[in-house]
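4-hydroxy-tetrahydrodipicolinate reductase
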Amino acid sequence: MSELLPVAVLGARGRMGAEAVAAVREAPDLELVAALGSSDPLDSLVAAGARVVVDLTVPEATYDNVVFAVRHRMHAVVGTTGWTPERLGKLGTVLAGAPATGVLIAPNFALGSVLATAFAATAARYFESVEIIELHHPDKIDAPSGTAVRTAQLIATAREAAGVPAAPDATRDAPDGARGAGIDGVPVHSVRLRGLTAHQEVLFGSPGEQLSLRHDSFDRASFMPGVLLGIRSVAQHPGLTVGLDGYLDLQAGTSS
């Protein structure tokens, strides 16, 4: 019988954390060795022998949690928001002292959402206009969502590389926020509505045609396959990976 991979979940009392605890417990190749709340002491991770830490806490705690894990040679799979470029840079410096340790920071663990973002980055080169609408439950603390921000960034990078000019927009007079938040030149519109879970639609337009790419998560169970993929793969990807797409072979099936 192969050795089980010892996993700890931080933020285990939250909705995502509770789903992750259940998913790890049910996985035949994983062992849940710790399930901590956001304010529980981290020293117990060492005593428990955790090799992978899943952080699903809050933005105020996530950086310190991940640094603790890295400094104790534990891999980390992170779904918490709040990772600014400055924080990512500081984490990269910490990881330089632990070259065999991997950290995955994923704005979204739903495999369909990750694929939709990758498809959007591919399509962005071929359309004149692009905008993003993201829709979430009203308890979400950040807007735009991390998924929408990453989608916009990847779209902007693809358009710049292809030499696509800025999308046309003749708007001169509008209430503040009417055109959404500008993320790297891509308008992102956030909706917060009771009854929603996590949804995103990317709209592309060119003369005479429109393309819509939409993904819907109706239950947090949709995120668990991606969480488990991250847990099982993080040790094979030392250093920092941002986005679950870094663990997927998105080139499979394409011609060379």
